[in-house]
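Consider the following assembly input.
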Amino acid sequence: MNVQICSALQRGIFDQMEASYPNEGGGFLLGQPQDGAIVIRDIIQVENTFAEEEQHHRYAMTPHDWMRLEDEADERGLSLVGYYHSHPDSPAIPSEYDREHALPNFVYIITSVVMAKAADMRAWQLRSDRSAFDAGTLSVT
Amino acid sequence: MAKIRIPTPLRAYTDGESNIEVAGDTVAEALGDLVAQHPDLRAHLFQDDQLRNFVNIFIGDEDIRFLQGLETEINSDDSLRIIPSIAGGNPPISIGGKQIADEEAPR
């Protein structure tokens, strides 16, 4: 899996994740497949709805967020291609909790935020048999 | 027939179709017909014959958990929607099915 994101959108994610620190932040990735890659065209910030005292290591959205953004993507001729969230003071690799809540054919972008600064960004995709994530190639254009 | 709207990531298992017509008088029957038509969906919707805990089923804007769950009756003109709950979090870490300690993780 090759994921392409422009530097402005990457900077937007970094800014949001740094502002959320020490809590997790996140949002949806809107985009489209193009020449064998998933091209991110927009990011939509979504409020973390997990219990406030758990937000330093948990992130959640409501089902209504999904409905609203999937409809918006359709209206814009895009697709809901994935979601992004942060791992404060932890590596940008998926947790078991991430895997249990993941779907295949969806891009998971994780940003590691260390001491309030974005330190790493990686893209992942769940295997079809749900057994593990595979790392994707993240190209910043 | 009722219709079920498939979330984007699962359309890979419905030949790209976003809306599937299903037979059945209850949500359970409709989902049963859906996975009969598209068997590869089952593993992503069910675990041990129970809906996975991050899978939500809506009829219009109503979550079936606040109706009669899978036994909620449906009409032939109802529009159902499968909505995943999005959630994530940090460690413990697992990659490739193998646990990795923080200090061993790729940077």
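Residues 2-86 of chain B form a domain with the Ubiquitin-like (UB roll) fold (CATH 3.10.20.30). Ask yourself how this observation constrains the way the partners meet.
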